[in-house]
Amino acid sequence: MRGLFASVCLLLAAVPSVFAANSTGCGKPKTLTNKQYSVQVNGKNRNYILNIPDNYDQNRPYRLVFTWHQRGGSAQKIVNGEDITKGGALPYYGLKAIANNSAIFVVPDGLNSGWGNSGGEDVTFFDSMLKTVEADLCVNTNLRFSTGFSYGGAMSYALACARPEQIRAVAILSGAELSGCSGGSKPVAFYGQHGTSDSVLNISMGRSVRDKFVAANGCTKPASEPQPNGANSVKTVYSGCKAGYPLTWVIHNGDHNPSQTNSGSSTPFAPANSWEFFTQFT
Ligand SMILES: *[C@@H]1O[C@H](CO)[C@@H](O)[C@H](O)[C@H]1NC(C)=O
Ligand SMILES: *[C@@H]1O[C@H](CO)[C@@H](O)[C@H](O)[C@H]1NC(C)=O
Ligand SMILES: *[C@@H]1O[C@H](CO)[C@@H](O)[C@H](O)[C@H]1NC(C)=O
């Protein structure tokens, strides 16, 4: 009991004080609505779709979730969702359906349908969206998250590297280092999942992205590399991580797929796993 109490205190003490809690949009009537917005970033036109909870309350600090599409994808495809039996993801990576109107979603469009992040331009795009959204809407600035599959996972990783003080946690589905990593030595809570049969971005690439944050978060590497349990995924919660910076790794035996299910289930496990990971922070 005493140990538990001590760890809870440690966890609370570890929440970085650089985070302010409420965005400047709190307490003000909003002007933003559910639609596509455009912004000029480094002279280029950039688009994103915004989704605000039903019955938005200007005095409630919401979670803010960035959802980045895969290569060849688009913001609209993330909003609509794609066939999960054909390697697609559920709408908003399945998070909006379980968020119960507790989160604002930002869905960006990549240049050339990807996240090359040339010269950090996609991170600058993130900075711009964050500023606009938080000046207008009420966000708990301790609770900003980023997720994506494949190239979208790579972009979430790039943000974890470059914006560790802005991003509370990432969920990286079958990702790799494709959008760079400017930084990567400061801790960010990290959820990753990857298939051992990934034919697009092999498992070694996923592991090296993970291991960047195993190191940054001060976690202990397990004695042996976690393996899938047949057609079931195996979740490993790393031990020894700095308080407030957990790391969870889910290994499965599938291919490059955001909608992998466990044996006998038709429900992809990424949404519930990611949401559970994000909502451990309050
Ligand atoms: C943030 O907003 C909540 C809800 O309106 C309020 O209870 C809390 O005091 C605010 N926190 C700060 C630091 O202003
Ligand atoms: C959804 O959110 C509402 C309002 O915050 C709350 O009253 C309700 O219990 C929540 N429902 C679930 C299933 O969590
Ligand atoms: C994984 O892919 C990378 C990049 O294509 C390649 O360099 C590496 O050899 C591959 N590793 C394995 C184990 O196949």
From TrEMBL:
Keyword match Hydrolase: yes
Key words, A-Z: Carbohydrate metabolism, Hydrolase, Polysaccharide degradation, Secreted, Signal, Xylan degradation
GO-annotated biological processes: xylan catabolic process
Its EC number(s): 3.1.1.73
Matches recorded under SUPFAM superfamilies: alpha/beta-Hydrolases (SSF53474)
GO CC term, one of those recorded: extracellular region
One Gene Ontology molecular-function label: feruloyl esterase activity
Signal peptide (UniProt feature, chain positions): 1-20
Catalysis performed (reactions): feruloyl-polysaccharide + H2O = ferulate + polysaccharide
Superkingdom to which the source organism belongs: Eukaryota
Subcellular location: Secreted
Alphabetized PANTHER family for the sequence: FERULOYL ESTERASE D, PTHR38050
Protein name: feruloyl esterase
Organism: Massariosphaeria phaeospora
